[in-house]
Amino acid sequence: FRYINEQLYTVKSADAVELFKNEPDSFWAYHEGFAQQTKKWPNHPLRLIIQWLLGKDSGKVVFDLGCGEAKIAEAVGNRHDVRSFDLVAVNERVTACDMAHLRKRDGVADIVVFCLSLMGTNLLDFIKEARRVLKTGGITQDRRSDVTFRQSEGVRGGSVQAGLRGAREESRH
Ligand code: SAH
Predict the structure, then answer these.
(1) In this model, does residue 73 exceed pLDDT 90?
(2) CATH architecture assigned to 44-172
(3) Residue 143 banded pLDDT, cuts 50, 70, 90
(4) 33 vs 18: CA distance, rounded Å
(5) What are the pocket residues of ligand 1 if the criterion is a CB atom closer than 6 Å to any ligand atom?
């Protein structure tokens, strides 16, 4: 697990795609390891995100990028329209792709979530892609470091602002 985790943080996502294509078993090993690790955490950020989504008006289009087992879709899929993406599809809820290239139209998502998934040396590609698919005023959450990115209202393609915010805090202008 640690080895693959390290790989994911230190290579470009295109290389991660190759890694898992060549060694599909390693993805399962990685996910097994990830699940073991996070079981010990008293506050998995996923729980906070799910709570936060449950508190929002229903019907939001939510993109879960680097979704793992697509737990968000599982938990709030009857309230919101959740689309789950990961390098490998571990179940039928997941669409396999590199989140640097989502093959989705501009401005379709209300909310984009990166939960512990901003790995890879081309992080900026993921954030740019999130910004592209977000509607104006959409929200991006990265629970890995409690950084909340938000897209300024009015200017799609405008600057994405980053700020350190409390874990439960929502930012929106
Ligand atoms: N969000 C899930 C899983 C976090 S583990 C959860 O909180 O449970 C990080 C996930 O990000 C892994 O499943 C990994 O495959 C995925 N990931 C990393 N780089 C990616 C990329 N370029 N495109 C899609 N998924 C990626």
Answers:
(1) yes
(2) 3-Layer(aba) Sandwich (3.40)
(3) low
(4) 20
(5) 8, 13, 16, 34, 46, 66-68, 71, 85-87, 98-100, 115-117, 119-120
